[in-house]
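quick q for whoever's on today - can somebody do inverse folding on this one?? i tried earlier but teh output was garbage lol. tokens:
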């Protein structure tokens, strides 16, 4: 059984990650700081160390030096993506942005351990090791039995082993990020980093320096030189989500990277060669955007060497119940309800719904129903899908103004909170005195993510402050 050491000073997060990993069958030890980890454990004897970046005392990245034979996964917030890049440079095998979902954490852990098991403990920097990818087929990464998805899988199988730039198109929630992951994991770059950047989530003023890095003094506040995310992906793949949101200057710089395989930091006169496979995604019509001048035509053609279109869920009618079954199994196991089933009426409702939010909406509906279900059968009322397939519905106990009905938690029970609980707890506690921007900043996520999580957890933003 793999042994994992968690180093995290925040009690709630440490306890939630410990429980999550124990539940998944790992042997887990934990510590509040690097110093405590060294006093109470032998970090080098673990199969994996998961550490927060900012800790009292030494930084989490210090563990990379102190346990040179153990891979280190660094937890960080979106707000400190730059530090994540630096961590990768220092030898962390991967980083995970807080707050993360349970599935994201488990997937990251499984990936790293699988890589290690195959004898590849490469840190992600340096030359291509030419190792075998750990995943052999897109069907192991994403579900899809209908003809349209089989075609997508065939395309992924063909294009993944090449160096070709890929543009993934599809509505929000169709699985574009999952497809990008499949392209990376099935490529010879699988053992190198896959850096995912949501271009819509980074403020416009920061995006160039985030992507390309900057020299010391390049702009006010640039007190030291920084490496950008593209350079951090050297040897691996870069997934640029929401590429349509990239501002004009950044588009010009990106074009240069694609044309010359060279990167020039903001404020620098010198270029450096980079070896990065680009995967971009958008839900917008980029071709139409080139006509209005919003997106550079030359960049569009560079990105659109190979296009993969992920169909909306309404065009994958025969996959709906299969996907629902997968999510039900996963959620049921997570919540200790392994015998859940869909009633025949619930199946009909799922098949008839239009799914404007695509697979993400289906996943959320199943998660919500799993939480609310008292017996073993999920009925249409638990799915609570509105008949027009429109907005997401909020469970009654959590609707606006009913917050007093949500369970209140005392300090003792705080340790039992899951990460989702922690998020919900934080939002409910602070939403009356903080703006959405402040809440998002404190949580280290974008406003878009905050909005999405509010919808998912049934704690919509209050429209009035009365
Ligand atoms: N074919 C699939 N099989 C299993 N899970 C899926 C599939 N497609 C999507 N999902 C799940 O649905 C959710 C949304 O997928 P993903 O984030 O990849 O979509 P997206 O198109 O990138 O969305 P957005 O454009 O909003 O970023 C994720 O939790 C993902 O794991």
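ok took a stab at it. sequence:
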């Amino acid at each position: 059984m793999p042994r994992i050491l968690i180093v995290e000073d925040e009690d709630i997060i440490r306890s939630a990650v410990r429980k999550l990993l124990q539940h998944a069958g790992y042997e887990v030890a934990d510590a509040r700081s690097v110093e405590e980890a060294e006093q109470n454990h032998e970090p080098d004897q673990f199969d994996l160390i998961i550490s927060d970046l900012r800790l009292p005392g030494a930084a989490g990245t210090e563990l990379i030096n102190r346990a040179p034979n153990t891979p280190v996964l660094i937890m960080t917030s979106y707000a400190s993506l730059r530090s994540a890049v630096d961590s990768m440079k220092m030898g962390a095998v991967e980083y995970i942005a807080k707050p993360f979902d349970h599935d994201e954490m488990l997937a990251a852990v499984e990936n790293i351990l699988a890589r290690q098991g195959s004898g590849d403990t490469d840190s992600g920097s340096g030359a291509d090791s030419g190792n075998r990818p750990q995943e052999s087929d897109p069907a192991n990464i994403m579900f899809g039995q209908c003809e349209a998805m089989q075609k997508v899988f065939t395309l992924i199988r063909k294009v993944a082993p090449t160096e070709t730039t890929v543009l993934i198109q599809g509505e929000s929630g169709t699985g574009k990020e999952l497809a990008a992951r499949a392209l990376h994991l099935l490529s010879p770059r699988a053992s190198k980093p896959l850096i995912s950047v949501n271009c819509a989530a980074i403020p416009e003023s920061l995006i160039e320096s985030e992507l390309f890095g900057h020299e010391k003094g390049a702009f006010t506040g640039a007190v030291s030189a920084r490496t950008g995310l593209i350079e951090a992906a050297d040897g691996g793949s870069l997934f640029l989500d929401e590429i349509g949101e990239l501002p004009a200057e950044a588009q010009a710089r990106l074009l240069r990277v694609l044309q010359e395989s060279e990167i020039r930091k903001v404020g620098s006169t010198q270029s450096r060669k980079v070896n990065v496979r680009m995967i971009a995604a958008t839900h917008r019509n980029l071709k139409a955007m080139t006509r209005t001048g919003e997106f550079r035509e030359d960049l569009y053609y560079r990105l659109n060497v190979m296009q993969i279109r992920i169909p909306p869920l309404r065009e994958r009618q025969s996959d709906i119940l299969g996907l629902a079954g997968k999510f039900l199994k996963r959620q049921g196991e997570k919540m200790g309800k392994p015998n859940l089933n869909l009633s025949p009426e619930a199946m009909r409702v799922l098949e008839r719904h239009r799914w404007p939010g695509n697979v993400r909406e289906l996943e959320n509906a199943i998660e919500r129903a799993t939480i609310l279900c008292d017996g073993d059968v999920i009925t249409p009322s638990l799915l609570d899908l509105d008949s027009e397939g429109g907005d997401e519905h909020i469970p009654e106990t959590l609707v606006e103004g009913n917050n007093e009905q949500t369970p209140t938690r005392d300090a003792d029970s705080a340790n039992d909170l899951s990460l989702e609980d922690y998020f919900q707890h934080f939002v409910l506690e602070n939403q009356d005195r903080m703006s959405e921007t402040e809440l998002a900043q404190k949580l280290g996520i974008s406003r878009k993510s905050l909005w999405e999580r509010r919808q998912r957890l049934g704690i919509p933003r209050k429209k009035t402050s009365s």
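fwiw The longest strand covers residues 72-77. also The chain is about 40% helix and 15% strand. so keep that in mind when u check it
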